[in-house]
């Protein structure tokens, strides 16, 4: 595991470097987290320049004039919509209003789209206690309800693998278990969802930068920028990403109206999506839906940078391990046997 | 013999830094229960509480026996501690509205965790730090933690097996 | 540039005039293109759910064809190198036809991608300046760059040379020769980048191997000459273009090298997967033997291997390759065998099992097959049209000033067929 830790080590690091610890014993947890985050922040999109706007404005005007008679204003706006990272606040407001109106027309439900920003100094992480997970899949269904995932064709962000005691290799397991009661004797259960990796192969793969890692660790997708090439789906080692093969249909009574622009708003056809650690909840201090649904307390979630959080204590003191660690993805998802 | 002791001591001193070797430091690093984490009170959830509403008029039987008669609370087999335990292991004979430790200290039903962890000490550390158990609330604010009996019926503590939600829908059949 | 506009009109005029067979050929191709167009409309309307792809196997026949035809595009180098480096006159006459094959192949690849993405209306997001191109991280972004470059290069070189020929002017070496030499290296790069976009993925152990890029290049060097043999035989027969036998000898000599090496590389992969016997070999097991009862692919790969071995033997044994029917059969089998090995035999098993160990199979449905055949038909249609114009200009039938003698190094005099005015 890449984060060797010192018991009780909680001396903060100076910004930008780790000079205040004993190098022989390895860096403390904060240093490793700070280093990782700095590396990622420096890979963020460059600041938008005005040249891009002028170019696009010119092309938009020309094309708009050419095709305007056949399209509504909102369709033209949607076609020329900029990348999320370039949007200003007033543009966002207009976009959210347009999307809310679209949902209202399709489902009759009035929804509210928000755009919570990442909290300062927060680095989300998930810890999963495999001694307690009994494979009941309540998390899978709660996630589907919270994130407006369609039932037909079925889309689920979380998959639970049933493995024999004695093996950790996924190819020897099954996701199709359906016994009367869980846990079955001699088996253990491994839920897998997006690990919000610190070295995400999906972010590397995306040709249009439609998916990127936010400062609080969550890897997000701009559903209005994604071209649907599915290269990220091929690149993900955890089978975490889902594609909208068809326009998703959600029954009106099952629509969750508290929506985030980058998370659980109803997505269009032809784009990729995945677990976002329920950022519309977690960036407001709430726990993700899967966490709250888990009846056994196997799921632990919190801020890795907070020395008093449960996840921090688990990562520092429990025998945590990482799925497919040899691929170097550096996930924010830690499994342990508690 | 003394040389062997010295060698053993040296080995122990030079041995690996596993978490178990720093037991004292670990205890210090376990944060005290803060105001932000409250334990969920349970007394109001208990059926037939306060127990004294019936038991005030009944004489307690201090000698060990098997409960066969009507009792409002129990409806399944007692399965905890095999034959070592019986009712007054945890229930306070002198005040049936309270629980008791092995040393005779009275503990409220709201703090039943003190009784459980007096034997299950390994779980105390995990439960206090949040690695074990259910916590609701805000990850960065007020949390409410469930006490042991919320999941583990003290009379039959093994976590029950439950029916799982259905498996993922099978992939669509290959059409031609 | 009034000359150029007239030139374009005259080219179109040349394309629409032809024999009855010519119209039949174009008509049949247009029919397939039309069907593909309808199928794509269906996809645009309903979403990619009309295909047999799923979250488990998210790339299918479209990407398989893309990978194969990138090899064909790169294979144009098989003509460019002997023409310009070794100055073989017999090949110099045909090099423009080879470059046009590259143009058509790259266009087909772009169409395979366009009909496979979820939001073709957003492909402008890939344009640097108004969108974002994720360089240097994303190999797919690199693919966009190298494809655009290769397409432009291979449009420019024949375009310039033919326009000069049409005008009866001597082409300036600086206007095309640097691009010619660049295209030789660029041909390698387009196929290498395509291989890298697969081999760079740690999540797919079947692709995550260094041998993928060499395999791609060698198999391109095998399928391109085989295809060119068939193509130039057809052109010789239908357009009356004189193609010397030495050209075919040259292609066979290339095949004599690339086919055995291709088999060797397949052997290297097979050894590593099965000898180690690690769980990462699951995809290889699925391809060659089937996995846990799922065995759709083994028959295809074993057939492809048989074809390739048979063809290799034919190419290597002089007595066998001298028999024309056998030689043509071997070429056909090579094209099919390498398509199977590189397309279905690479893309489909890469997704089986998926990263969580689940097995979901994939085979294209009728709609996908129609769409893909239609794109190939469109390529054939474009190539027929462009080749007709090229041959007409090279023969002197299409001239700005009819009757003038062309002076153009790089495109030697081609004897006109009997009966046509020069």
What does this structure look like?
The complex is a heterotrimer of chains A (338), B (176) and C (422). Chain A has three domains: 1-44, no CATH class; 52-114, no CATH class; 116-338, Alpha-Beta Plaits (2-Layer Sandwich), CATH 3.30.70. Chain A has ten helices and eleven strands. In chain A, the strands form five sheets. Chain A has a three-stranded mixed β-sheet with strand order 10-2-11, covered by helices on one side. Chain A starts with 28 loop residues before the first helix and ends with a strand. In chain A, a hairpin with a 5-residue loop joins strand 5 (211-213) and strand 6 (219-221). By secondary structure, chain A is an alpha/beta fold. Chain B is α+β, with helices and mostly antiparallel strands and 176 residues long. By secondary structure, chain C is mainly α. Chain C has helices spanning 2-16, 20-46, 61-74, 77-84, 89-92, 95-114, 139-167, 173-199, 212-238, 245-276, 282-288, 298-316, 318-322, 324-350, 366-395. The chains are: A alpha/beta (338), B alpha+beta (176), C mainly alpha (422). Chains in contact: A-B, A-C, B-C. The interface between A and C is large, with 59 and 49 residues.
């Amino acid at each position: 595991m890449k984060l060797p830790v010192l018991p009780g080590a909680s001396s903060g690091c100076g910004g930008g470097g780790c000079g205040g610890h004993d190098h022989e014993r390895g860096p403390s947890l904060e240093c490793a987290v700070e280093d990782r985050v700095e590396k990622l922040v420096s890979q963020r999109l460059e600041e938008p320049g005005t040249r891009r706007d002028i170019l696009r404005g010119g092309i938009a005007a020309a094309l708009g004039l050419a095709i305007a008679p056949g399209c509504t204003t909102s369709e033209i706006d949607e076609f020329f919509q900029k990348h999320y990272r370039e949007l200003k606040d007033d543009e966002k407001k207009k976009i959210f209003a347009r999307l809310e109106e679209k949902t209202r027309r399709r489902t009759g439900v009035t929804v509210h789209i928000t755009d919570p920003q990442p909290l300062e100094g927060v680095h989300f992480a998930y810890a999963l206690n495999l001694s307690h997970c009994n494979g009941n899949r309540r998390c899978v269904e709660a996630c589907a309800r919270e994130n407006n995932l369609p039932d037909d064709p079925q889309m689920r962000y979380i998959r639970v693998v049933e493995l024999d005691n004695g093996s950790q290799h996924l190819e020897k397991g099954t996701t199709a278990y359906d016994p009367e009661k869980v846990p079955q004797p001699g088996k253990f259960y491994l839920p897998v969802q997006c690990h919000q990796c610190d070295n995400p192969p999906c972010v590397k793969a995306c040709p249009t930068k439609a998916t990127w890692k936010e400062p609080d660790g969550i890897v997000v997708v701009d559903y209005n920028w994604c071209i649907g090439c599915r290269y990220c789906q091929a690149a993900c080692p955890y089978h975490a990403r889902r594609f909208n093969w068809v326009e998703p249909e959600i029954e009106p009574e099952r629509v969750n109206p508290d929506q985030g622009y980058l998370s659980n708003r109803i997505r269009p056809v032809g784009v990729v999506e995945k677990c976002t650690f329920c950022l519309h909840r977690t960036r407001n201090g709430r726990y993700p839906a899967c966490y709250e649904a888990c009846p056994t307390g196997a799921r632990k979630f919190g801020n890795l940078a907070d020395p008093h959080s449960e996840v921090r204590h688990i990562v520092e003191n429990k025998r945590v391990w990482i799925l497919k660690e040899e691929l170097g993805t550096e996930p924010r998802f830690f499994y342990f046997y508690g | 013999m003394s040389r062997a002791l010295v060698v053993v001591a040296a080995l122990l001193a030079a041995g690996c830094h596993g978490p178990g070797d720093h037991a004292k430091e670990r205890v210090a690093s376990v944060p005290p229960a803060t105001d932000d984490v409250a334990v969920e009170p349970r007394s109001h959830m208990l059926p037939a509480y306060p127990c004294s509403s019936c038991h005030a008029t009944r004489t307690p039987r201090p000698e060990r026996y098997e409960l066969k008669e009507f009792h409002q609370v129990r409806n399944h087999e007692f399965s905890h501690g095999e034959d070592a335990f019986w009712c007054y292991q945890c229930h306070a004979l002198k005040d049936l509205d309270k629980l008791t430790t092995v040393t005779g200290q009275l503990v409220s039903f709201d703090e039943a965790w003190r009784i459980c962890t007096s034997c299950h000490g390994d779980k105390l550390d995990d439960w206090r730090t949040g690695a074990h158990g259910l916590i609701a609330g805000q990850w960065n604010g007020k949390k409410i933690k469930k006490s042991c009996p919320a999941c583990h019926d003290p009379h039959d503590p093994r976590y029950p097996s439950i029916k799982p939600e259905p498996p993922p829908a099978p992939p669509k059949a290959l059409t031609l | 540039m009034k000359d150029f506009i007239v030139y374009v009109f005259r080219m179109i005029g040349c394309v629409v005039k032809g024999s009855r067979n010519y119209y039949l050929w174009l008509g049949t191709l247009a029919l397939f293109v039309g069907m593909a167009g309808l199928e794509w409309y269906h996809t645009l309307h309903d979403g990619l759910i009309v295909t047999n792809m799923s979250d488990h196997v998210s790339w299918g026949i479209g990407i398989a064809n893309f990978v194969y035809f990138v090899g064909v595009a790169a294979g144009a180098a098989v003509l460019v190198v002997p023409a310009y480096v070794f100055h073989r006159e017999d090949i110099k006459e045909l090099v423009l036809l080879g470059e046009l094959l590259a143009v058509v192949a790259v266009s087909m690849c772009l169409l395979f991608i366009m009909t496979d993405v979820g939001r073709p209306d957003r492909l402008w997001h890939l344009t640097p300046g108004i969108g974002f191109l994720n360089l240097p991280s994303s190999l797919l972004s690199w693919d966009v760059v190298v494809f655009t470059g290769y397409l432009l290069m291979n449009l420019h070189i024949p375009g310039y040379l033919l326009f000069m020929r049409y005008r009866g002017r001597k082409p300036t070496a600086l206007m095309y020769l640097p691009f010619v030499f660049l295209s030789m290296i660029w041909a390698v790069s387009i196929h290498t980048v395509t291989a890298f976009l697969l081999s760079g993925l740690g999540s797919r152990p079947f692709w995550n191997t260094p041998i993928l890029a060499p395999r791609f290049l060698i198999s391109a060097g095998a399928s391109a000459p085989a295809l060119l043999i068939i193509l130039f035989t057809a052109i010789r027969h239908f357009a009356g273009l004189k193609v010397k036998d030495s050209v075919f000898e040259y292609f066979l000599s290339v095949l004599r090298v690339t086919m055995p090496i291709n088999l060797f590389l397949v052997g290297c992969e097979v050894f590593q997967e099965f000898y180690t016997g690690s769980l990462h070999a699951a995809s290889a097991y699925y391809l060659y033997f089937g996995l846990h009862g799922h065995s759709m692919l083994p028959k295809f790969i074993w057939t492809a291997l048989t074809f390739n071995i048979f063809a290799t033997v034919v190419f290597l044994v002089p007595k066998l390759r001298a028999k024309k029917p056998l030689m043509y059969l071997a070429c056909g089998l090579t094209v099919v065998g390498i398509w199977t090995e590189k397309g279905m035999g690479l893309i489909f098993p890469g997704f089986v099992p998926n990263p969580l160990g689940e097995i979901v199979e994939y085979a294209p449905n009728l709609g996908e097959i129609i769409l893909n055949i239609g794109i190939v038909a469109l390529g054939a249609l474009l190539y027929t049209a462009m080749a007709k114009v090229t041959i007409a200009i090279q023969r002197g039938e299409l001239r700005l000033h009819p009757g003038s003698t062309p002076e153009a190094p790089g495109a030697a005099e081609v004897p006109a067929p009997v009966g046509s005015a020069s």
